[in-house]
Design goal:
Blueprint (H helix, E strand, L loop, with lengths): L1 E6 L24 H13 L7 E4 L2 H13 L4 E8 L5 E2 L4 E3 L1
Antiparallel strand pairs: 1-2, 1-3, 3-4, 3-5
């Protein structure tokens, strides 16, 4: 299972990157420095017109989601799986502000 992050605001784009072990704690709230550092890192890695981020680790996804939520970014996300050919399966979109 992976998590697909779509950024709705046109100027934002993200691509996935592994989180350090220190961020792999489920339910931990990011501190302000982490929010800025991680959001900036993902923005710096922006790529492509579709502005999508695939995050395979659930704890990393939840942490990134909380970082974006803290700064008021409007995003949508959907749990999904990817088949062996890279096609997205089982996509269910959930909108969040």
């Amino acid at each position: 299972m992976a998590y697909w992050l779509d950024v709705i605001e046109g100027e934002w784009g993200m691509v996935g990157t592994p989180a350090p072990e220190s961020l792999r704690m489920v339910r931990r709230q990011p501190n302000p420095g982490e929010v800025k550092r991680w959001v900036d890192r993902f923005v710096d890695l922006a790529s492509g017109e579709r502005k999508r981020c695939i995050v395979e680790d659930r704890a990393e996804f939840e942490f990134l989601y909380r970082c974006l939520e803290r700064i008021g970014k409007t995003i949508s996300f959907s749990p999904m799986s990817i088949d062996t050919e890279g096609n997205v399966e089982n996509r269910r979109l959930i909108h969040a502000a």
